[in-house]
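This section describes the prediction task in plain terms. A model, or a person checking by hand, is given the sequence of a single protein chain and must write out its three-dimensional structure as a string of tokens. No templates, partner chains or ligands are provided. The sample shown here is typical of the held-out split.
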Amino acid sequence: MQTSSDRHEYPAHWEADVVLRDGGTARIRPITADDAERLVSFYEQVSDESKYYRFFAPYPRLSAKDVHRFTHHDFVDRVGLAATVGGEFIATVRYDRIGSDGMAASAPADEAEVAFLVQDAHQGRGVASALLEHIAAVARERGIRRFAAEVLPANTKMIKVFTDAGYQQKRSFEDGVVRLEFGLEPTDRSLAVQRAREQRAEARSVQRLLAPGSVAVIGAGRTPGGVGRSVLDNLRSGGYTGLLYAVNGALPEGQKELAGVPAHRSVRDIAEPVDLAVVAVPAEHVPEVVAECGEHGVQGLVVVSAGYAESGPDGRERQRELVRQARSYGMRIIGPNTFGIINTSPQVRLNASLAPEMPRPGRIGLFAQSGAIGIALLSRLHRRGGGVTGSTGVSTFVSSGNRADVSGNDVLQYWYEDADTDVALMYLETIGNPRKFNRLARRTATAKPLVVVQGARHGGAPQGHAVRATRLPHATVSALLRQAGVIRVDTITELVDAGLLLARQPLPAGPRVAILGNSESLGLLTYDACLTEGLRPLPPLDLTTEATAEDFHRALAAALADDTCDAVVVTAIPAVGERSPRDVELAEALRSAAATAPAKPVLVVHVELGGIAEALSAAVSTSPQAQRGDLPRPAEPPPTAVQAPEEARLIPAYPAAERAVRALAEAVNYGQWRRDAADPGKVPEYEDIDEKGAAGLIEGLLTRGQGLTLGGDETCDLLARYGIHVRRALPAPTPEAAAEAARALGYPVALKATAPHLRHRADLGGVRLDLADEEQLRRSYAELTELFGPPQELRPVVQAMAPRGVDTVVQAVIDPAAGPVLSFGLAGAASQLLGDTAHRLIPVTDRDATSLIRSIRTAPLLFGWRGSAPVDTPALEELLLRVSRLVDDHPEVVAVTLEPVVVAPHGLSVLGATVRLAPPPARDDLGPRTLPVY
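The expected answer:
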């Protein structure tokens, strides 16, 4: 696309799709010589005032020389980017590298002048802010460290773009012009600004899909049945409050209505604006439909049509083209192959899905990557006696289908600020951007509970999902999600159980649980379940089978008033006798007692008690009651709820003690995470860290190759620059060399075989410890060679003895999907077999390091188990923090292993270390905002 005189090939990696402030999308790409006509057309649509602000003088049209200059770039010293919608320019930005004299220059000059021009019709959409992020990233890539911009004082909008970006700035005023200079290195403030803009834009893009003012169903059949007609009927019966249109290209001429809805043969024929289009036509006809929607100004698409990536390679390419086409018009997509979306808000009442009944309005947000699982979840949350009723129903539901565009990350951005959603439930089969998901999940979890169940845990990703593979086992990914505040559960049943509890009850202040009820056996089962889940149950209170409703009320009120109790589980079984409480009486007794302590959660366990289940669930709900046959019935009986007056809370009731206690345990753990998150700790500074020296060493080492494992001396040198000192191990290819090494190190010494099959395997006999003199050393050397082979195979080394302690392993690795992860565990086969390793995302804070050590099941060995001496855990925490700093400061360090690290009662010794370097992997959670490309 460029002439032969250009110094670089067209940089395709600079192309990106971005979400703008109003939720629409634009494409950012380099400007090339082929864009001359687009540039002229764009400039003609810019107002005279905007032209004046750009050129500081009246400038009605561009000359041929201007057009050539603004479309011919070398992509190094002169770069231009354009924001496009529908293939046409809506804004441009360019930089020109300058020297200290302000004239055009080349590297090593590291300053450039930057200038913007935005079409008036698109000003206020955040286009210039997005372009600034991208041109700054391009400039950094080309060795430019500072931007300078000259702006007229009256051009307050552009001045605000620069000042709000968060970079370090210097401002001056001369000859009637404001001159702004700012560095391009990201700062904490610039990153915070970027992420705040990202959140607002992505949330707005989802909000436009979930709360449209008008909907067109494209592919609605003329007779009942079929996907398109079903969606149309569901929108009508659900009471959608906006304008609704049916579109069917096969309608006879003159037919203006379909199923009581205005009908058209094409979306182009609709006179009014259309905010959302539901596409339910065969895949081969979708491109034509998308083009019509884009030209009509439709804001978003819900593509129910199948035949995309889930069908194979051809479908995957069809899906990529669908996304490219939709984004070129500024539209976002849910799907393809989606079950649909729902918004129960009374102001919207949108059921653009295949669910035949609108769920009850409520406070739970629901996201599912599987249509089948979405049906099951809606069923459980919909059925009377088994679903969320009244004020705890569904706020919004999104089925992402193949997740080609809108993903769980986008929906999290929306839920974070959605006042109608108190709890978020997600069924995920893949996580396209785990780093971003962890960041968004952590932020969301500080405000409202986020419960996640992961499917496809032990197999590959579903065919319709294009994601990068992770090398981390599922248990590690789950641990990292929990670290981010995600409530990780294993089944759909647990997802609903936890969601109902969190939506209806306050978070417990601790793990102490009171148990009361009319069955001693059920109370003991609940007690055992609490112990299994790590809770601290109080002795169960047996009210006997003769207990009345008043007895339950009195016992529950007393338990809630007890300062040694953080939560109460009430167990109830059917009772026979004149004094046995009726179901409604018992439900009211429990509700009124719970109201006396609104800060403590209450749960009910009922066994085969259909009557009370109804009483706990139905009572005084003002929402319409759905028929039980409307949606598929789940295989297991779902939890129910005490339905109270609007100002009171609902008490969830579970058909099994284990389910109730497991949900309570998740709430306890989440409550503790919320309290800990209020003080996340800090990343400490260490004065002896030589960051610049380490960077220089790494740069020099990487000149030898793209990826390499460092030798022993190089490893020790790099680690020492971060205050991590490895005990010297001298090679001993002969007995004489071993004796010489021991004399240099000083006795006592250890003799170790470092062959790959023997390394770190003391249990195989390849290590001899506490060798006090040369005679013992030579004897041990002879034993090793006799047992395992010649020295050239054993690779023996001699190392000075370290103080005795507990052997541990510290590792850090940069996973291509999850990012940098720090791991810790005890050394040895037992820990490896049990998978007893804990993980934290890097950078690690002091609180993270403390909890990491204590997270493994074998942690008691570090703290004086069975009378042994406690080891120096503060020294171990410091080592973890230093390794975290090394990997965080230098992304070229892609793997570090310290094994073994012997932690003694005083201090520790690193006896072995390996470091691997590679060019830093791409980061999609930093840099300019961009939508993923699958």
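For orientation: Residues 188-210 form the longest helix (23 residues).
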